[in-house]
């Protein structure tokens, strides 16, 4: 499991309290001998996002998660932002299907085209 401890940019942030509270439910951080990765992030400041994405990819590799490659693609948007040169950019976790360059994607009421294969 990957736990994103958000709002770490706030002065009252207390990630140790979060670890203590979650440990009461059996969710223990790796440094305490558990199996959960705790990543400190600030969505507002954008800090820790790369570490969170790396943790998710590592967890997917450890669990040997594989997507069903047949059919239409579906998944979840992990991160999105507006790039001045490229326009809207999203990091997507594909759960099933395959995305190709030029495919149209829909997220809520917004849509766009895949501009690169990853």
TrEMBL record:
Keywords: GTP-binding, Initiation factor, Nucleotide-binding, Protein biosynthesis. Pfam families: EF-G_D2 (PF22042), GTP_EFTU (PF00009). One of its GO terms (cellular component) is cytosol. One of its GO terms (molecular function) is GTP binding. The keyword Cytoplasm does not apply. SUPFAM superfamilies: P-loop containing nucleoside triphosphate hydrolases. Residues 73-115 form the Elongation factor G-like domain. Transmembrane segments: none annotated. The keyword Cell inner membrane does not apply. It comes from the Bacteria. InterPro entries: EF-G-like_DII, P-loop_NTPase, T_Tr_GTP-bd_dom, TIF_IF2. Residues 1-57 form the Tr-type G domain. PANTHER family: TR-TYPE G DOMAIN-CONTAINING PROTEIN (PTHR43381:SF5), TRANSLATION INITIATION FACTOR IF-2-RELATED (PTHR43381). This is Translation initiation factor IF2-alpha. The lineage of its organism: Bacteria, Pseudomonadati, Pseudomonadota, Gammaproteobacteria, Enterobacterales.
């Amino acid at each position: 499991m990957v736990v994103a401890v958000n709002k770490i940019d706030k002065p009252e942030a207390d990630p140790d309290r979060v670890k203590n509270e979650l440990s009461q439910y059996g969710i223990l951080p790796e440094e305490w001998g558990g199996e959960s990765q705790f990543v400190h992030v600030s969505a507002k400041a954008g800090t820790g996002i790369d570490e969170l994405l790396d943790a998710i990819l590592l967890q997917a590799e450890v669990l040997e998660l594989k997507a069903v490659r047949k059919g239409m693609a579906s998944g979840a948007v992990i991160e999105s932002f507006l790039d001045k040169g490229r326009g809207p950019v999203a990091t997507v976790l594909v759960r099933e299907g395959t995305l190709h360059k030029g495919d149209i994607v829909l997220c809520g009421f917004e849509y766009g085209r895949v501009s690169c294969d990853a």
